[in-house]
Amino acid sequence: MAPRLLRHPAVSAARDGRRARGGADEVIWLDDAAGTLAEAGLSRERPRRGPDRLWRTGAGRGAVWVPGTPPSPLDDDDDHGAAATGPAALVPVAAFSFRRSAMALSTGAGPVEAELLAGTLRAVAAERPAARLRLAGGRDAVLDLAMRLAADLPLLPPRAALAEEGRALARDGEGAAPRPRHRGAPDLAGAATVEHALLRAVGHLLDVMLHQAPACRLEAGPEGVHQLRVALRRLRSVLKAFRPAARGPALDGLDEGLRALARRLGPARDWDVFLSGLAAEAAAALGGGRRLSGLKRAAEAKRDAAYHALRRELDGPNFRRLALDGVSLLLRRPWRTEADTDTALLDTPLADFAAPLLEKRWRKLREGGDGIAGHSFEALHELRLEAKRLRYAAELFAPLWGGKAARRFLKRLSALQEALGTVNDAAVARGLLAALDGGAPAWAAGAVEGFAAARVGPARKSALSCWDDVAAAKAFWDGAPAA
Fold it and tell me: What pLDDT digit, counting tens, does each position of 169-205 carry?
């Protein structure tokens, strides 16, 4: 990495003939046997020279997280640092032996200090190469340089601090994933304004995507693809939900990048679901046999090809650009410079913004479900999409109100979406089987398609029952938000 970085045109031109400064170094990270510091999002670092230092490895509760933010230093008596370390003896958990190369760069957007740390991450029974590039300077200068480098080099905002990578290596060995900083949907409880909530949601979901992307490998199983797809859909839903307050070319560009990635994720996820769901259930019900085994092999070949195409996308410049576009959005807040931005709306209390948005989507879903018993397949498909749109928005804003009503509403909405999804499976299966293009025995393809069609009737009946439950649910946003 170091030679390629130093030879990159964006670096070599900005160095203006100056040599990189550096030398060898090492740090050791410590924790107690229970991993108390790790649980608190802290790391105790022992450098080769000087006293131990305490670092926060993620965002504080309720803060906006910007992927790529380095750990921040804490004093032992800051926050809960002293309580977290306690009197228990600390022991070495992992170490990083590296060479430091520091460069002063003069870019067109301003000066940037670049520091490359490249070396070996070590635990007792495992080790692996690791590197970090740190860029410091003006916002625009750093972002512009990062974007130019990422176009040619495999550079992404890291999914975890090096201390967390070291803990994962010590815990599970080479190839282990660090614990995620963020999981699931953003929790916007306590977000003071619409803009604060938008920033928190985008930072949270970008971090989830960065964490899940390395797990999107065939040998890792389907969970990484599933979680990345969900995070992507949630992020697109966030951009749409906040569009009345924040819009512009930068947001449109991020959404288009997410849409393009979704097109790569879709086939891998669809084949995963087909193989583990419908194909497996059909084989169990129909007794398997050579012809169904042939269909399974053909479907696995399609899935494998979809995974390889997705991996190429995630390892390429498009995904790196997408991640940096998200980081740029968080730092530049470009909606503030749009001519038609309503800054008063950006500064509005979040519940005042969320309640009418939820009511609008709730009304649209109820209108779409009117006369559901007579709905065509196409109408049920559209209703499923409306349910999904409302669920993502309700999931996002439910923490503002909390309580049983919000949990009940989300549970009923999720059940409706699942039932309508089963109805939709027949059409998805038909498309996937057609994509096999004669690569599977015709009898097997027809049997699986027939099996899928046979499930539509019961699933439709279940959807009608779920609709009755949803229609009777209380709109949790009608009351006052939680204090």
Answer: 998 887 788 989 899 999 998 898 999 999 999 999 9
Which pLDDT belongs to residue 25?
A: 95
CA distance 174 to 132: 18
In the chain, CATH 2.40.320 sits at 2-181
Q: Where in the chain is the domain with CATH 1.20.120?
A: 183-291+299-347
Q: pLDDT per residue over 361-388, tens digit each?
A: 999 999 999 999 999 988 999 999 999 9
What confidence score (pLDDT) does residue 87 get? 45
Q: Rounded to the nearest 10 degrees, what angle do helices 290-314 and 403-435 cross at?
A: 110
Q: Helix, strand or coil for residue 68?
A: coil
Contact criterion met (CB below 8 Å) for 312 and 147: no
> Which contacts (CB < 8 Å, 24+ apart) does range 39-46 have?
39/84, 40/80, 40/84, 41/181, 42/74, 42/81, 42/84, 43/71, 43/161, 43/163, 43/164, 44/85, 44/90, 45/163, 46/92
Q: From CA 199, how far away is CA 178, in angstroms rounded? A: 24
Taking residue 78's Cβ as centre, other Cβ atoms within 10 Å add up to 12
The CATH number of the domain covering residues in 349-483: 1.40.20.10
Average pLDDT of the chain? 90
Q: How deeply is 471 buried, as exposed, middle or buried, from its count of CB atoms within 10 A (0-12, 13-18, 19+)?
A: middle
Q: What's the full length of the chain, in residues? A: 483
Nearest to 84 by CA among 164, 30, 162: 30
Q: What is this structure's pTM? A: 0.92
Own/partner contacts of 1-6, CB < 8 Å, gap of 24 or more, are: 1/116, 1/118, 1/131, 1/153, 2/99, 2/101, 2/116, 2/118, 4/153, 5/116, 5/133, 5/149, 5/153, 6/101
Tokens standing for residue 471: 């229609």
Tokens 């999914």 label which residue?
159
HSE (CB half, 13 Å, CA atoms) of 347?
Answer: 4
Question: What sign results for the dihedral spanned by CA atoms 367, 464, 422, 415?
Answer: positive
More confident residue, 276 or 33: 276
**How is 122-136 classified by DSSP, letter by letter?**
E-SS-EEEEEEEEEE
Kindly indicate whether the domain formed by 2-181 is annotated with CATH number 1.10.3710. Answer: no
Fold annotation for 183-291+299-347: Four Helix Bundle (Hemerythrin (Met), subunit A) (1.20.120)
23's enclosing H/E stretch is strand 21-31
Instruction: Specify the amino acid at residue 322.
Output: L
